[in-house]
């Protein structure tokens, strides 16, 4: 960070809020930023979304050295944008060892694995709870399903998973934080968006070929061109 840019209590408070929440929609993040400015900013200027972007940029310059980042991600299952506080380390699961027990962390790993391996990266909620039986094979007592339900709710609040229509999805935090982990461990079942070259978990499929793309990437692409970037036929799938 350049010396002439001050790192204020607004930056510190917003970073703390992102760290505590894990995942915030852009509207939630902006409302939180406005509240933080009202408390800590003596200039009394009217906060804007551009100001928030600058604050996040300054925070990221500070925390990148600690393998952390506040990332902006478009999440296709809800078609919403989120700010996600993520660890950039190779094995972010290990960071939770002081928070969760060994069986709980194993349940997290199994759930992550099964969502990565499923064809559409979703699982029925009941199937997620049945994964607790897998902990017994590791020499541990199976995790109680009531505790598994509590964990799913807690992890959903942090953005790791999403429950929608009795199905479980990888949440916006998992999509960003575990992108490298999943790509490395399950390379055979993941693909990359041909427009942004980032691993794609949820997106939109061309009607004329097997190509799948991030919905947001395709929206931007269609502002300039009208054909599928893979097969070059006219794009017909509504976005």
Automatic annotation (TrEMBL):
<keyword id="KW-0479">Metal-binding</keyword>
<dbReference type="GO" id="GO:0000724">
    <property type="term" value="P:double-strand break repair via homologous recombination"/>
</dbReference>
<dbReference type="InterPro" id="IPR014857">
    <property type="entry name" value="Nse1_RING_C4HC3-type"/>
</dbReference>
<comment type="similarity">
    <text>Belongs to the NSE1 family.</text>
</comment>
<keyword id="KW-0808">Transferase</keyword>
<feature type="domain" description="Phorbol-ester/DAG-type">
    <location>
        <begin position="178"/>
        <end position="228"/>
    </location>
</feature>
<dbReference type="GO" id="GO:0004842">
    <property type="term" value="F:ubiquitin-protein transferase activity"/>
</dbReference>
<keyword id="KW-0539">Nucleus</keyword>
<dbReference type="Pfam" id="PF07574">
    <property type="entry name" value="SMC_Nse1"/>
</dbReference>
<dbReference type="InterPro" id="IPR011513">
    <property type="entry name" value="Nse1"/>
</dbReference>
<dbReference type="InterPro" id="IPR013083">
    <property type="entry name" value="Znf_RING/FYVE/PHD"/>
</dbReference>
<feature type="domain" description="RING-type">
    <location>
        <begin position="193"/>
        <end position="232"/>
    </location>
</feature>
<dbReference type="Pfam" id="PF08746">
    <property type="entry name" value="zf-RING-like"/>
</dbReference>
<keyword id="KW-0832">Ubl conjugation</keyword>
<dbReference type="GO" id="GO:0030915">
    <property type="term" value="C:Smc5-Smc6 complex"/>
</dbReference>
<dbReference type="GO" id="GO:0005634">
    <property type="term" value="C:nucleus"/>
</dbReference>
<dbReference type="InterPro" id="IPR001841">
    <property type="entry name" value="Znf_RING"/>
</dbReference>
<protein>
    <recommendedName>
        <fullName>Non-structural maintenance of chromosomes element 1 homolog</fullName>
        <ecNumber>2.3.2.27</ecNumber>
    </recommendedName>
</protein>
<keyword id="KW-0227">DNA damage</keyword>
<keyword id="KW-0234">DNA repair</keyword>
<keyword id="KW-0233">DNA recombination</keyword>
<keyword id="KW-0833">Ubl conjugation pathway</keyword>
<dbReference type="GO" id="GO:0008270">
    <property type="term" value="F:zinc ion binding"/>
</dbReference>
<dbReference type="InterPro" id="IPR002219">
    <property type="entry name" value="PKC_DAG/PE"/>
</dbReference>
<dbReference type="InterPro" id="IPR036388">
    <property type="entry name" value="WH-like_DNA-bd_sf"/>
</dbReference>
<comment type="subunit">
    <text>Component of the Smc5-Smc6 complex.</text>
</comment>
<keyword id="KW-0158">Chromosome</keyword>
<keyword id="KW-0862">Zinc</keyword>
<keyword id="KW-0863">Zinc-finger</keyword>
<dbReference type="GO" id="GO:0061630">
    <property type="term" value="F:ubiquitin protein ligase activity"/>
</dbReference>
């Amino acid at each position: 960070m350049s010396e002439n840019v001050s790192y204020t209590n607004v930056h510190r408070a917003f970073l703390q809020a992102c760290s505590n929440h894990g995942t915030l929609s852009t509207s939630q993040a902006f409302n939180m930023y406005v509240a933080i400015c009202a408390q800590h900013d003596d200039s009394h200027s009217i906060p804007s979304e551009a100001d928030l972007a600058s604050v996040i940029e300054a925070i990221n310059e500070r925390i990148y050295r600690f393998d952390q980042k506040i990332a902006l991600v478009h999440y296709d299952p809800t078609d919403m944008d989120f700010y996600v506080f993520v660890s950039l380390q190779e094995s972010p699961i290990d960071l939770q060892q002081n928070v969760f027990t060994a069986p709980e962390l194993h349940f997290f790993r199994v759930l992550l694995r099964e969502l990565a391996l499923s064809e559409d990266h979703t699982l029925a909620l009941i199937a997620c709870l049945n994964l607790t039986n897998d902990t017994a094979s590791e020499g541990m007592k199976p995790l109680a399903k009531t505790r598994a339900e509590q964990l799913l709710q807690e992890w959903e609040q942090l953005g790791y998973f999403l429950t929608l229509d009795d199905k479980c999805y990888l949440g916006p935090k998992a999509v960003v934080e575990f992108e490298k982990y999943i790509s490395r461990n399950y390379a055979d079942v993941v693909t990359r968006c041909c427009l942004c070259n980032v691993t794609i978990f949820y997106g939109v499929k061309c009607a004329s070929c097997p190509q799948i793309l991030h919905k947001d990437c395709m929206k931007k692409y269609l502002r300039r061109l009208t054909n599928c970037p893979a097969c070059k036929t006219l794009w017909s799938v509504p976005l």
